[in-house]
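Comment thread on ticket #2218

A.B. wrote:
> Attaching the input chain for the structure job we discussed in standup.
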Amino acid sequence: MYNLFMEKCNENQSIGVSMITYRRIFGTEYNMSFFKPKKDQCSTCNEYQKASTEEKLSLKLKYKEHLQRKEASMKNKEEDKKRAASDKSFKSITCDMQSVLQIPISQLCENNIIPSPLHAWYRSLPSSCSIQDVTAEPSENDPDEEEENY
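C.D. wrote:
> Ran it. Output below, let me know if you need it in another format.
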């Protein structure tokens, strides 16, 4: 927004202000602030929280199921972390799929945000909210297994 403000100042041939001054005035005189999310937020939770009372009634079952899946996945993650700590033959890998898949996969490839050698792999990733059926295939050349064999 600051950049847009500076562009407007240049168009009107007026003198702009520093970003610090802009933020101070914007936050105090206009009683507005810049949103800083405290943690990742998913679209299902945001949709429910922003919904009107009538909309919440229709979304209630979907939201309740979503929270149950969230709790189950957190429990599974904790169990996997404990198992990985105690069982050296078990590896647990996690990633933040919510942040990875925000943009439709095809757009990432078409706009060359993803390097072309990886297009096929990215297109094979699940793009729906449910990724429970996806499991990693073991690597043929797992370096940890090679070390154990010697």
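A.B. wrote:
> Thanks. Noting for the ticket: The helical segments are 2-11, 19-28, 43-50, 53-86, 97-100, 105-110, 119-124, 143-149.
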